[in-house]
Amino acid sequence: MSRSSERRRRPSGPGRRGPGRGSGPVDPARLAAYEVVKAVRVEGAYANLALPHVLGRLGLEGRDAAFATELASGTLRQQGTYDAVLAACVDRSLTKVEAKVLDALRLGAHQLLSMRVPDHAAISTTVELVRSKVGPGAAGFANAVLRKVAHRPLADWIGEVAPDRDADHDGWATIAHSHPRWVVERLAAAVGRGQVDDLLAADNLPPRVTLVARPGRATREELPGEPTTFSPYGVVLTAGSPTSVSAVAEGRAGVQDEGSQLVALALVEAAVEGADETWLDLCAGPGGKSALLAALGAERGAFLLANERQPHRAGLVLANLTDPSVRLLVPGAAGVVAGDGTVPPYRAASVDRVLVDAPCTGLGALRRRPEARWRREPADLDALVPLQQALLGSALDLVRSGGVVLYATCSPVLEETRGVVEQVLAMRDDVTLEPIGGLVGAVPDSAGPLPGTVQLWPHRHGTDAMFLALLRKG
Ligand SMILES: C[S@@+](CC[C@H](N)C(=O)[O-])C[C@H]1O[C@@H](n2cnc3c(N)ncnc32)[C@H](O)[C@@H]1O
C-alpha cells in the first residue's frame, strides 16, 4: 500500500533535499536529533535544554536546526505510538533491541509517519546513522524494519496496533495520541471525555513561541509578532528566534507562555484594600513570573520578594530580574531569597499578595517538554500533593488579613488543583475562595473545577493548561 500525501502535515526541512541518500556521511540534522534523543535516554536530559547545545556544537542553523528540533521533539512526544508500530515490525520484543538502534528506529518512524520526508531519504539516512553508531549488522536490521514501517500511513498503523476505540477509548488514545494510560485517564477526568482527544492531540503539537513585554521596560508594540489574545503584555513570535529580539537580549522582555502571563496578571488584578506594598512569589524559580510581577509591582510601588528552595534556581530568578550587566531591571523593586516555602523565613501576616506557583506534575505543559510524559509516574502525586498543600498553607499564614493568595499549577490534574484547594479550605476557617475577576476571569470557556477558579487549556486557549485559584484571608 502506498502512503497518501494528505496525512503528511509537518514541514520537511532538509529531509526534502534528501541528504544522505545511499551510503555516505551521516546527515548532521539527523545526527543532532539522535544525540538529543540519546541524551534524554542516557543522561536524563531535558530535550529543550539539550537541543540548543547540540545544534550549536554541530553548527546547525535555519532549516537544518528547525528540522532537527522537530525530529527530536516529535520523536520523543510520539514515542508511544512509534513503539507500538515498531513492535509490529520487529520479530522480538523491543526491550531486546539495542537502545541506540531503537532510538534511531523511532527517529526513522517519525520521519516516515509524521514528517514530509520521502521514504527513501528517511530510510537511507537512518540506516547510515545506525551503521555509524552501531555497525553494519544493525544497519541491515534497521533497513528491514523501516521498510515495513513505510508500508502504511500513520492512521492505518494506528487502526492496526491500537485497541478498538469504542471498546477501549483510553487504550486507543494511549497509542493513538502517545500518552501513558494513567495520563490519559487523569486528563480525561479533568477536561471531560468529550474533549480529551482534542487535548491529547494539542499536546503533540509544538507550542508557539510567546514573548512578554515587561511593563515599564518594554512595550509589546516593539516586539515582533502578533498580539496575544488574552494577555495585554504578550506577542506570538511569527518568525525568527527570540534571542535575536533586542528587548529579550536586554532582559526587558522574555519568553513566556501566555498562560503564565495570565497567572501573574490574576494575582495583580485581585482587589486588595489597604496596604499593597509587599508581594511574595513563594516558588519563584526560574523566575519568569517573578520578572513580570516585579515590573507590575514597580508600577504600583510594591516590592516583590522572590523565594525559591533550590539555590541554583534562585540564581536563575536573579538572572531573570537583572539585565545583561547584572543590574536589577527595576531597581529597588525585587529581592531573591533561597528558602523552603513550607518553613518560610518571613513574619506571619506580613505580605499583601502571594503567588504559589506550585511544583507539580507539569502535565499541562507537555507540548513544551517532549519527554516529560514518559518520566512522570502516578506515584509522583503522592509526594507533590502534600507539598502543594503545605506551600498553600504557609502562603495563607504569610498573607495578612484581607490579602490574597493565588494558587497556580501548570497541571490540570484534579488531585493537584481542586483536591489541594478543597483540602486546604477544609482545614482553615480564615480563608475564602473568591472568583478570579478582571481580564483573566473573562477568558472564555475557562471555568475551573471549583466555582470561580480558572482552568486554561492548550486546545481551547493555545496556552499551557494552567489552573488558577484565588484565596482571600479573612
Ligand atoms: C512551577 S515552578 C515555578 C515556576 C516559576 N514561578 C516561573 O514562572 O518561572 C515551581 C518551583 O517551586 C520550587 N519549589 C519546590 N519546592 C519548594 C519549596 N518547598 N519551597 C519553595 N520553592 C519550592 C521548585 O524548585 C520550582 O522552581
From TrEMBL:
<keyword id="KW-0489">Methyltransferase</keyword>
<keyword id="KW-0808">Transferase</keyword>
<dbReference type="GO" id="GO:0032259">
    <property type="term" value="P:methylation"/>
</dbReference>
<dbReference type="InterPro" id="IPR049560">
    <property type="entry name" value="MeTrfase_RsmB-F_NOP2_cat"/>
</dbReference>
<dbReference type="InterPro" id="IPR001678">
    <property type="entry name" value="MeTrfase_RsmB-F_NOP2_dom"/>
</dbReference>
<feature type="domain" description="SAM-dependent MTase RsmB/NOP-type">
    <location>
        <begin position="172"/>
        <end position="474"/>
    </location>
</feature>
<dbReference type="GO" id="GO:0008168">
    <property type="term" value="F:methyltransferase activity"/>
</dbReference>
<dbReference type="InterPro" id="IPR006027">
    <property type="entry name" value="NusB_RsmB_TIM44"/>
</dbReference>
<dbReference type="InterPro" id="IPR018314">
    <property type="entry name" value="RsmB/NOL1/NOP2-like_CS"/>
</dbReference>
<keyword id="KW-0949">S-adenosyl-L-methionine</keyword>
<feature type="region of interest" description="Disordered">
    <location>
        <begin position="1"/>
        <end position="27"/>
    </location>
</feature>
<keyword id="KW-0694">RNA-binding</keyword>
<feature type="binding site">
    <location>
        <position position="340"/>
    </location>
    <ligand>
        <name>S-adenosyl-L-methionine</name>
    </ligand>
</feature>
<protein>
    <submittedName>
        <fullName>RsmB/NOP family class I SAM-dependent RNA methyltransferase</fullName>
        <ecNumber>2.1.1.-</ecNumber>
    </submittedName>
</protein>
<feature type="active site" description="Nucleophile">
    <location>
        <position position="410"/>
    </location>
</feature>
<comment type="similarity">
    <text>Belongs to the class I-like SAM-binding methyltransferase superfamily. RsmB/NOP family.</text>
</comment>
<feature type="binding site">
    <location>
        <position position="357"/>
    </location>
    <ligand>
        <name>S-adenosyl-L-methionine</name>
    </ligand>
</feature>
<dbReference type="InterPro" id="IPR023267">
    <property type="entry name" value="RCMT"/>
</dbReference>
<dbReference type="Pfam" id="PF01029">
    <property type="entry name" value="NusB"/>
</dbReference>
<dbReference type="InterPro" id="IPR035926">
    <property type="entry name" value="NusB-like_sf"/>
</dbReference>
<feature type="binding site">
    <location>
        <begin position="283"/>
        <end position="289"/>
    </location>
    <ligand>
        <name>S-adenosyl-L-methionine</name>
    </ligand>
</feature>
<feature type="binding site">
    <location>
        <position position="308"/>
    </location>
    <ligand>
        <name>S-adenosyl-L-methionine</name>
    </ligand>
</feature>
<feature type="compositionally biased region" description="Basic residues">
    <location>
        <begin position="1"/>
        <end position="11"/>
    </location>
</feature>
<dbReference type="InterPro" id="IPR029063">
    <property type="entry name" value="SAM-dependent_MTases_sf"/>
</dbReference>
<dbReference type="Pfam" id="PF01189">
    <property type="entry name" value="Methyltr_RsmB-F"/>
</dbReference>
